[in-house]
Amino acid sequence: MIRISSQQIFSGGINRLQDLNSNLNSTQQQISTGKRVNQPSDDPVAAARILKLDQELSRVETYQRNVNLADNRLNQEESALESATDIIQRVRELTVQAGNGSLSANDRRSISSELKERLGQLANVANTRDASGEYIFSGFQGSVQTFQQNASGSWEYQGDEGQRVLEIDDGVTVPISDHGKGIFESVPASVTGEVVSSPGGGFISGVSVANEAALSNTNPGPFADDVSIEIGAGGAIIARDTAGATLPAGSVVPSTYQSGEPFVVAGVEVTITDAAVGDTFELNINDKQSVFRTIENLIAGLDSLDKSTPQGSAEFDDLIANSLRNLDNAQESILLKQTELGGRMNAVESTKNFLEDSSVYTNQIRSELQDVDYAEAISNLSFQSFVLQAAQQSFAQVSQLSLFDRL
């Protein structure tokens, strides 16, 4: 026969009541927090999976912030480039208007005045800042103003050639900036001619590409940068490359100089006027020129060139033609960058959608593991309350039993 002492009865009863009360409190906590797992002991396996899912959500949220930053930067750059394109298009319209031969000097100066305003607007666009105050076209030098005016009033690039990139997913990076040198500064310039030596006042004009294939064939050669032209004895046109070597036969057509008559050298049509034997000229090929310099040269020419002389008229016509070609090149440079931006923005958008889907899926699994079933929890709470109440009443009755009550 097993003897049960009063201490054992009290101890066992209290332990049972504590267990029931603990279960009741746990259910109450689940209902109040809305979570089935509030501590690892509630469900160790589920708790471990929830921890991993929380880490995944934290990773996704970090990349989502990066995606939003990349999206904002790329949209801001695209907006700036659209504004720049509109300004350059207006400058081109003014250039065409300035080329009208019926305009007076005052009319050209009026056009020059608007060009100065447009030049300032373009500089403002190139000096666009982001929300943190950094210049978006300055490369890594975000605190440095992208374009600044030098002592002569010309706009010059002040940043570097760095390109910032941002990781928007594991192993996925996207460039979020472009330096202004590549967009506004290093723009292919039209082929131009200049006088090297002509004591008698000879001048070069009408320089234009006549044969793209012939010019392209010369580009890889030693005269990719320039070609020198000399008027030799008997009017022979002598063309040399940058190393001083004479271009092969057939590179100059016709090969005999006639004042005011065009000829083609290395695929470029040229007209030289009033030159004498020994005069030298130079063709600048594959040069780069900023869109700011193009507009500045146009403004200077409209303000200073005298169309009343043959030389002044030829220089003015060349100025208009070269400006139009350079402005077209500037627009093409921006268009290429906009196309590149479009590809980046598509990549960012795809990653953004993927991260959103991943977040939804991860949250769904996490919810299934952690969220409480209120109907089940409330039912358990009612049952546990009933059991606890019954246990308390039973314990109260048992605790009153004693042999002394029978004496």
TrEMBL record:
Query: GO MF annotations for this entry?
Result: structural molecule activity
Domain named Flagellin N-terminal is located at 15-140
Q: Which keywords does the record carry?
A: Bacterial flagellum, Cell projection, Cilium, Coiled coil, Flagellum, Secreted
Q: Which domain of life is it from?
A: Bacteria
A Gene Ontology cellular-component term: bacterial-type flagellum hook
The parts of the chain that form a coiled coil are 53-94
Q: Which family does it belong to?
A: Belongs to the bacterial flagellin family.
UniProt-recorded name of the protein: Flagellar hook-associated protein FlgL
Q: In which organism is this protein found? A: Marinobacter similis
Instruction: Specify the taxonomic lineage.
Output: Bacteria, Pseudomonadati, Pseudomonadota, Gammaproteobacteria, Pseudomonadales
